[in-house]
Amino acid sequence: MTGLSTHVLDAVTGAPATGVAVSLQDASGTELSSGTTDADGRISQINTAALVAGIYHLVFDTGSWFSENDIKAFYPEVDICFEVDDPGRHYHVPVLLSPFAYSTYRGS
């Protein structure tokens, strides 16, 4: 099975972003699975079914997280579109989050 994990770091405080809801969607926007970041800001395995080669989205509900933490922010949602090109490989998609910016990269 292709593994897919993520984590969210609050780039302002350097702390994990605990309790961020994340949805895994296919290219058409159909939700395949979902989860919430743990105390370390991680979801170690978001997919329950094997991923096949193709385009996917990880959608982070940042608006709710910012609101719950009383932070005024610009991005209510972060949608990271990525491509699975090797179904046998593990994919890790982290997000560094701040109220007015975010970044991501292909992790390992």
From TrEMBL:
GO terms for biological process: purine nucleobase metabolic process. Substrate binds at H7, R42, Y105. It is an enzyme of class 3 (hydrolase). InterPro entries: Hydroxyisourate_hydrolase (IPR014306), Thyroxine_BS (IPR023418), Transthyretin/HIU_hydrolase (IPR000895), Transthyretin/HIU_hydrolase_d (IPR023416), Transthyretin/HIU_hydrolase_sf (IPR036817). It comes from the Bacteria. It catalyses: 5-hydroxyisourate + H2O = 5-hydroxy-2-oxo-4-ureido-2,5-dihydro-1H-imidazole-5-carboxylate + H(+). GO terms for molecular function: hydroxyisourate hydrolase activity. Catalyzes the hydrolysis of 5-hydroxyisourate (HIU) to 2-oxo-4-hydroxy-4-carboxy-5-ureidoimidazoline (OHCU). NCBIfam families: hdxy_isourate. Homotetramer. Belongs to the transthyretin family. 5-hydroxyisourate hydrolase subfamily. This is 5-hydroxyisourate hydrolase. The lineage of its organism: Bacteria, Bacillati, Actinomycetota, Actinomycetes, Mycobacteriales.
